[in-house]
Design a protein that fits this description.
The complex is a heterodimer.
Chain A (H helix, E strand, L loop, with lengths): L3 E3 L3 E4 L5 E7 L5 E8 L3 E8 L6 E2 L6 E7 L2 E6 L8 E8 L8 E2 L3 E5 L1
Chain B lengths: L3 E4 L2 E5 L4 E7 L6 E7 L6 E7 L4 E4 L2 E6 L4 E6 L8 E8 L5 E3 L3 E6 L1
Parallel strand pairs in B: 2-11
Antiparallel strand pairs in B: 1-3, 3-8, 4-5, 4-9, 6-7, 7-8, 9-10, 9-11
Classes of the chains: A mainly beta, B mainly beta.
Chain lengths: 113, 111
């Protein structure tokens, strides 16, 4: 069973801080994704990665960056946290771009004060 | 790009009744349509999916139908139970193969 682990379940950070959200998957998946989830807006794609060292912007990349130095780890970085980045962040992975679904992590509830 | 619309946003049903959630998509190249269930405080989990070469798929009390011509697909839950209460998301692949999600449907099953 694929496991996608997000390092923190809850996180509280101050405005202006640099924030790192970590995601690790244990099934050698090529594709990894970062979403944010807000009430009424569903799941919005921030960044994704086809494979190690690769990254692509999603629908709402502003204020975020990512790092994928190893295949199993995909990090989301908030360069300078702002209150409008308070949200639930979900990481997901998939074997490769094709006809298959994602496996999601449990999410990180980030509050920026 | 792909645009997925989902209706209704909330759905209240009596236990034992059926629930239907509908989604439309815009990209005719979409070829994979999964449905996810997210219980309160938990991760979204894949409950059923359908590929573009299939019109209908059933798994116990849940079924999904796909109409490629009209570009819409639906989730049907029969004999609803309290544990079916959750947020349900539909999704469709875009031209890059990644999933575009609908906004979600909050389903409440009342005893």
């Amino acid at each position: 069973d694929v496991k996608v682990t997000q390092s923190s379940r809850y996180l509280v950070k101050r405005t202006g801080e640099k924030v790192f959200l970590e995601c690790v998957q244990d099934m050698d998946h090529e594709n990894m994704f970062w979403y944010r989830q807000d009430p009424g807006l569903g799941l919005r794609l921030i960044y994704f990665s086809y494979d190690v060292k690769m990254k692509e912007k999603g629908d709402i990349p502003e204020g975020y960056s990512v790092s994928r130095e190893k295949k199993e780890r995909f990090s989301l970085i908030l360069e300078s946290a702002s209150t409008n980045q308070t949200s639930m962040y979900l990481c997901a992975s998939r074997k490769n771009m094709g006809v298959s679904g994602y496996t999601f992590g449990s999410g990180t509830r980030l509050t920026v004060v | 790009g792909e645009n997925v619309e989902q209706h209704p946003s909330t759905l209240s049903v009596q236990e034992g009744d059926s629930a239907v959630i509908k989604c439309t998509y815009s990209d005719s190249a979409s070829n994979y349509f999964p449905w996810y269930k997210q219980e309160l405080g938990k991760r979204p989990q894949l409950i059923i999916d359908i590929r573009s070469n299939v019109g209908e798929k059933k798994d116990q009390r849940i079924a999904v139908t796909l109409n490629k011509t009209a570009k819409h697909f639906s989730l049907h839950i029969t004999e609803t139970q309290p544990e079916d209460s959750a947020v349900y998301f539909c999704a469709a692949t875009d031209s890059w193969g990644k999933l575009q999600f609908g906004a979600g449907t909050q389903v409440v099953v009342t005893p």
